[in-house]
């Protein structure tokens, strides 16, 4: 083989190698395009859904559809806030009527009843999420439908998540209330229909900050203490700093805010 023939053979080998690389590239491009076209129906179906899709790598499903974020929330707590103020409790506002509450929570989550005290009709109320921790009672000005005007909103579940901005809620003690009120306050003695009902914050800070705030207190027996004490029982005012109350744990069992 002379030098000239050797050069010709080398050129042919380079050409074949180049053709092989080119064919390999074309094959990869074709495979990629094929996979892309096959994925189009899945992507289109996901985009047409009202929710969003995300990858779920830890399951057998490759896609999971998330719920529509605009869907109505049926929780009494207001999308992350459990705030009580003089406008309402979380989602329940004094500006709502019964139909508005039904729109928010659904008819199946609201009941209507009447409150009786000492055998006498007092008022009509609606209960949202009855017997659940986020239960809220709404008291109406009207005695019969249509119920258009709220006069009070109440919570009482021992595990209720709703609180004022200063952290007062169900279970707050009289010591906490005194501190936040910056002074003593009065409530009725225990052991009768209005037992433990707040009378006045005595012009303290809470009366100025939350003029809508009403409460009912509960006396909890402690170890080695009598079940009751006549000095703090019955239909008469009791000061929150009464010395005999130190033998008991006295806490809020019911919060009611009234329309101001």
Quick overview:
By secondary structure, the protein is an alpha+beta fold. It has helices at 3-48, 98-105, 174-181, 205-209; strands at 53-55, 63-65, 84-85, 88-89, 92-93, 110-117, 120-128, 136-140, 150-155, 186-188, 198-200, 213-221, 237-239, 248-258.
Shape: globular
Helix content: 25-40%
How do the helices and strands follow one another from N- to C-terminus? HEEEEEHEEEEHEEHEEE
Note the main sheet. Answer: 6 strands, antiparallel
> How many structural domains does the protein architecture include?
3
Radius of gyration: 35 Å
Low-confidence stretches: 5-73
Quote the beta fraction.
25-35%
Distance between the termini: 111 Å
Lateral strand order in the biggest sheet: 6-7-8-9-14-12
What is the mean predicted local confidence, pLDDT?
79
Number of strands: 14
Our count of helices gives 4
Give the quaternary arrangement of the chains. Answer: single chain
Secondary structure topology:
Blueprint lengths: L2 H46 L4 E3 L7 E3 L18 E2 L2 E2 L2 E2 L4 H8 L4 E8 L2 E9 L7 E5 L9 E6 L18 H8 L4 E3 L9 E3 L4 H5 L3 E9 L15 E3 L8 E11 L2
Antiparallel strand pairs: 1-2, 3-4, 4-5, 6-7, 7-8, 8-9, 9-14, 10-11, 10-13, 12-14
């Amino acid at each position: 083989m002379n030098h000239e023939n050797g050069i010709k053979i080398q050129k042919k080998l380079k050409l074949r190698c180049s053709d092989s690389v080119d064919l390999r590239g074309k094959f990869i491009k074709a495979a990629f395009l094929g996979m892309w076209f096959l994925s189009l129906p899945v992507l289109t179906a996901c985009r047409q859904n009202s929710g969003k899709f995300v990858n779920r790598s830890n399951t057998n499903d490759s896609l999971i559809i998330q719920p529509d974020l605009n869907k109505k929330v049926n929780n009494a707590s207001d999308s992350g806030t459990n705030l009580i103020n003089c406008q309402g409790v979380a989602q329940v506002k004094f500006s709502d009527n019964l139909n508005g509450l039904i729109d928010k929570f659904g008819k199946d989550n609201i009941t209507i009843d009447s409150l009786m005290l000492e055998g006498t009709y007092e008022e009509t109320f609606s209960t949202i999420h009855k017997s659940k921790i986020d239960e809220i009672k709404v008291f109406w000005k009207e005695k019969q439908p249509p119920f258009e005007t709220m006069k009070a909103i109440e919570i009482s579940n021992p595990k209720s998540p709703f609180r004022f901005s200063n952290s007062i809620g169900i279970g707050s003690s009289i010591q906490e209330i005194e501190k936040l009120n910056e002074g003593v306050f009065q409530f009725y003695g225990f052991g009768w229909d209005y037992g433990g009902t707040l009378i006045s914050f005595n012009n303290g800070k809470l009366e100025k900050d939350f003029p809508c705030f009403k409460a009912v207190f509960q006396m909890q027996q402690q170890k080695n203490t009598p079940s009751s004490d006549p000095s703090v029982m019955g239909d008469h005012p009791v000061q929150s700093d009464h010395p005999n109350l130190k033998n008991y744990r006295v806490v809020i069992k019911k919060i009611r805010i009234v329309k101001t």
